[in-house]
Write a structure and sequence with these properties.
By secondary structure, this protein is mostly helical. It is built from seven helices and six strands. A two-stranded antiparallel ribbon has the order 1-5. A two-stranded antiparallel ribbon has the order 2-6. The structure holds iron/sulfur cluster (2 copies). One iron/sulfur cluster binds next to loops.
């Protein structure tokens, strides 16, 4: 497999994410409840019994790059939420550290994981984006990770971000 630089791969990841978001918005999201009318905004991101999103190292690095652009105050808050989750022996489900009250998902427009893009509150199961749509895009991201790092590991968001930071500092 042809090697790829991390910088170029992050650019390609962004294209994959944009294509997926456009497809979901165009073909599926209009059938879901609009988040603007939600009585419990953020419930889907903060429910520690619900969120189980796993991301790759490349996605974690892309998220970390975006977090670096936040104000010091906000960055410290996010880092502290991530650090708290490090104390869990194995984070199966978690309250996402990237959700900020009053703002929402801090990487909504820039580095949102694919399962989060696919997620919405649909009344009818048949209206949901099909699993294959997500799987196809995730396979593309898997390939990018293999080209950059030689392997792919899917980890919970806080663990993946934390490890990407450790690797960069080390
Ligand atoms: S996905 Fe559902 S729970 Fe989450 S903000 Fe939108 S409407 Fe609310
Ligand atoms: S990454 Fe964003 S959309 Fe996904 S669970 Fe976290 S805050 Fe919610």
């Amino acid at each position: 497999m042809k090697p790829l630089s991390e910088t170029k791969a992050i650019f390609m990841l962004d294209e994959i994410r944009s294509g997926f978001r456009d497809e979901v918005q165009r073909d599926y999201e209009h059938r879901a409840k609009p988040c603007s009318t939600c009585q419990t905004p953020g419930a889907c991101c903060l429910d520690a019994h619900f969120v189980n999103v796993r991301i790759t190292k490349l996605e974690a690095v892309a998220i970390r790059n975006e977090l670096e652009k936040l104000s010091e105050k906000l960055k410290t808050k996010v880092d502290s939420r991530i650090a708290k989750l490090q104390n869990e022996p194995y984070v199966e489900r978690y309250s996402c550290p990237l959700f900020e009250n009053g703002i929402g998902c801090l990487v909504h427009d820039t580095a949102k994981p694919l399962p989060c893009i696919a997620h919405a509150c649909y009344e009818r199961r048949e209206d949901l984006p099909p699993d294959e749509l997500l799987e196809t895009r995730e396979a593309e991201i898997d390939k990018l990770n293999r080209r950059v790092y030689g392997k792919t590991t899917f980890l919970p968001i806080p663990i993946a971000i934390s490890r990407s930071l450790t690797v960069r500092e080390g």
